[in-house]
Every structure is written in C-alpha cells, then in structure tokens.
Amino acid sequence: MKVLNLYAGIGGNRKLWKDVEVTAVEINPKIAEIYQKFFPEDKVIVADAHQYLLDHFEEFDFIWSSPPCPSHSRARFWGWKNDKDKRIYPEMGLYQEILFLINYCETKWVIENTISYYEPLVKPFVSGNHYLWANFHISNMQLNARAMDGFRRLEKAKGFDKDCLRGFDSMGKRLLLRNCTEPELGLHVFNCAFKDKQKTLWVQGQSPNELLNRKEKG
Predict the structure, then answer these.
(1) Structure pTM?
(2) I need a labelling partner for 156 at 20 to 30 A (CA). Which of 73, 102, 148, 179 fits?
(3) 90 Cβ partners below 8 Å, 6+ apart?
(4) In this structure, how many other beta carbons lie within 10 angstroms of the beta carbon of residue 97?
C-alpha cells in the first residue's frame, strides 16, 4: 500500500503502520533527517507538503496530512488574544486541503489538526485533542497525552526518546514531541480506513459534515 505522509515531522502517526510503502514530506531538513533515521525504509522528501499534495495526490492509496496548527489552536489564541502585536490570521491552507481532497481525491485520506479556538468551517471527527477530517468514519479514541506534559510523559505517550532528537535544544525537543501525533491515534485512524468494519455508510464525494449530520438524524 502506497502511503503519503505530509508534514511528516518525526513520524509519530506513522510509527505503528505495518506493510506500507511510505513517502514522507517534511520541509525542515533537520527534522526530515531525524525522521529518516527512525524510518530508514521510507522515502523522505524535503519539500513544501502543501504543493506536493496538489501535484501527487493521485499516486497514493492513503494520504495523511497534518498541516501546521499554531494559527488555529486554542492555546495560542488564549495566550495572545489581548496582545495586538501577536494576533495572526488562521492559516487557511488547512481548509484548502480539506476542500480539495473532498472534491478530487478518490482514495482514502485524512487531515489532522488541533481543536481550534473557532467553530470549524467543515465539521470534523474528534479524537482526544485532535480534529480529523476524512472520507471514512473515524470513531473517537481517548488519548492521555496533554500538550503541556513534561518530557517523561511526552516520551511515553509519543513513543520517542528526546535524546534521539539531536540538533535541537530543550525547547525545540519539547516542541517536536508536542507536535508529534500519538502513534496509537495514527494506527487507530489507519485501521478505521482499512481494517475495522465500517459502522456508518459513507458515500464518495460526501463531506464529514454531511456524514455526521445524517448520523444525528438517524
């Protein structure tokens, strides 16, 4: 199975996937190098994941995308709400990818992001502190890791030792771990796409919002 792993980071979501041929795209060369050491059999490309998706989405059986989340996060909004010099627009590349894949992609895909400080423009599935947009049903999964956990809890929850993240200072290592998707969630989503029996009928071309609305109406 050919898998495209976009905004790959150090590869938390990919850690428990088996029997897959993965192409990982990460724009930071230092982070891409760490990913390659963890997953030497994966093809790692240093490039803009947003553009790579547009150019290559038809080449894969499954697509995972985790666009940058800071401009959408509740934590940043709460922290800088009253500081006019720190206010920023939400990065709308997230919704560009969601709308593009809903309308153009015929294979399984998922886009992961943090729970936002605003009502999402397209209704997602929710697992822990993650929003998940997908063209298949994703059941809720409770996760124990919190963004502000200390190193030991982050290492355990994310499945990576901070000492392996060479080239980054303490703050950089903590950020890499905090941004890393929990491996259990990565496996759960993958299983929802391919292994677990679908409990809800999904129709090609239907958005997660339409799917959930139909479920609520019975």
Answers:
(1) 0.80
(2) 73
(3) 71, 72, 116, 118
(4) 24
Burial of 108 (0-12, 13-18, 19+ CB in 10 A): buried
Whether the pLDDT of residue 197 is over 60: the answer is no
> What domains does the chain contain, in order, with CATH numbers?
2-216 (3.40.50)
pLDDT at 214 over 70: no
- Beta-carbon count within 10 A of 41 CB: 8
- Residue 66 structure tokens: 């985790």
Rounded Cα gap, residues 8 and 15, in angstroms: 11
Residues in the chain: 218
Distances (CA, A) of 67 to 61, 112, 131: 19, 7, 12
Report which of residues 49 and 129 the model is more confident about.
Answer: 49
- State which amino acid sits at residue 199: K
